[in-house]
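Inputs:
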Amino acid sequence: MSDSSLGQNNKPLRVAVLVSGSGSNLQVLIDTMQSGELPIEIVGVISNREDAYALTRAKEASIPVALLSHVANGKRMGIKTFETHANAQLQDWQPDLIVLAGFMRVLSSDFIQYSIAPMINLHPSLLPVYKGLDTHQRVIQAGERHHGCSVHVVTAELDAGTVLTQALLEVDPKETADGLKAQVQKLEHQLLPWTILLIAKGVLTLNTDSSKNDDSYLPALPLTLFIDQ
Ligand code: GRF
């Protein structure tokens, strides 16, 4: 796309999804695409793990997949090699939007800056707090009253790009980290398609020009999804 007019026409938004694990969020995108609730076309799925169940989900939906395993024949694939292959694949698929849904490799600043399309990430915390891993455990240990998930623009700094949307819940002090994870995942399954819908409808307009570092085109963010659980 040549400018910041993502999702402004009537064509489905072309979405590429990067995954590393179960792919429950990918499944929600597949389901909402197939039911017509979400005006997207998932043009391909890239996994950095051979054992990611997300690959099975994509194949069952006849979505092209690319496996760029971080370990092949006992050798670790460096991030630069991964990115070279991922870039070629994305060039082929020509997505309007790249979604990191449970993708667990840290991408280089060059890959992010020169990305063919804007990139968003789903993170299991109310950013800017609890960046990084083990968010549910850390939230419980800190005795937080609120927790949730965020969708943010991917930038070179980990989990630090503009937060587009959030969904939140009240933490039951007796809750375990696993229980909290399950609760947050339920929120994620609503937040991610909702956010992509806002992008596809042009409510959220992402900057596709990486030379601009200007958030003024965005509405007051984050937009918050309140869900009755
Ligand atoms: C999600 O909880 C996401 O927040 C985290 O990884 C998990 C991915 O789950 N980054 P799935 O693979 O979509 O089931």
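The helical segments are 24-34, 53-60, 79-93, 109-113, 135-141, 177-200. Flag for discussion at group meeting.
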